[in-house]
Amino acid sequence: MRPRVQCTVFITMHHKLFRRCTGKKCTSQWLHHPGRCPDTFIGTIPLSLERDKRDLKTGDWQLMSRQTAKGYQEKILLTENVDTGRNDIFLTDNTANPAPLGLCAFGMTTLLLSIHNLGLTTLSSPILAMTIFYGGVAQVIAGIMEWKKNNTFGLVTFGSFGFFWISFATILMLPALGLAKAPGPAEFAAFLSVWGIFALGLFVCTLKMHKILMITLLAVVLLVILLVAAQLTGNPQILQLGGAMGIIAGALALYIGIGQLVNEIHGKKVFPV
Predict the structure, then answer these.
(1) Residues forming beta bridges with residue 25, ordered by sequence position
(2) DSSP-assigned letter for residue 177
(3) What is the mean pLDDT of residues 156-175?
């Protein structure tokens, strides 16, 4: 059996590198595109490859990409039978984009809790159920899927915030079940503070990413600061300010999630995300 030539294709927002296999030798060519190339982001880029009919003898390939989000590297493996000239394409990852699920779960749960912080609703079973299942379990699932996408930022963000919501629900449930003492303002402020430090780290990461995602993480950082201040001071006005900031953060996350979904379904940029 003749040897098979293997080449790897990488796609980013800023440039495309594709290699063409001619016999046993692989040559590479760069195609430059305007715009900024972030290191990472939340989402995926569906890809397709089409054979260039003008280069049937050399086995060259023409690379086509449909972009739904920025900065992600998708790997494609090309193999070629040297003796026959036939080419087989293997996509190493063709699974769905988990980012809209994680973003919508975070956004909707934050919105619901922020409505409570504004004083419009009570902390009842709808909020508790949302924090456990949609804000918690759904985001953890999205984070695991981002791991398979080789997206470290998505894994850490969705996985961590998913377990944050589960932890928050547990803090509310344990005292009600008589299994633990209810936290005081200082304890709850400490809990929120460590998550604020984490959100600040994520915000620093987004400085090289899409601006709307950066603004969303900034809103989350400000939200945590206001909630910590409200716990330490006991001032209801600060808590209401935190609720308003939570509405902004949740709405932005929901917008990004729905925007990515709509853009992918329509195959074009309907929403600028």
Answers:
(1) 22
(2) T
(3) 96
Question: In degrees rounded to 5, what are phi and psi of residue 101?
Answer: -65, -50
In one letter, which amino acid is 229?
A: A
Buried b (16+ CB within 10 A) or exposed e, 226-255: bbbbbbbeeeeebbbbbbebbbbbbbbbbb
Domain ranges of the chain: 4-91, 99-266
Residue 55 has pLDDT above 80, yes or no: no
pLDDT tens digits, 204-263: 999 999 999 999 999 999 999 999 999 999 999 999 999 999 999 999 999 999 999 999
Dihedral sign for Cα atoms in the order 122, 125, 130, 136: positive
Average pLDDT, rounded, for the chain: 76
Counting Cα atoms < 13 Å in the Cβ hemisphere of 243 gives 16
Would you say 171 and 92 are in contact if contact means Cβ atoms under 8 Å apart?
Answer: no
Residues in a beta bridge with 28: 19
d(CA 149, CA 144): 9
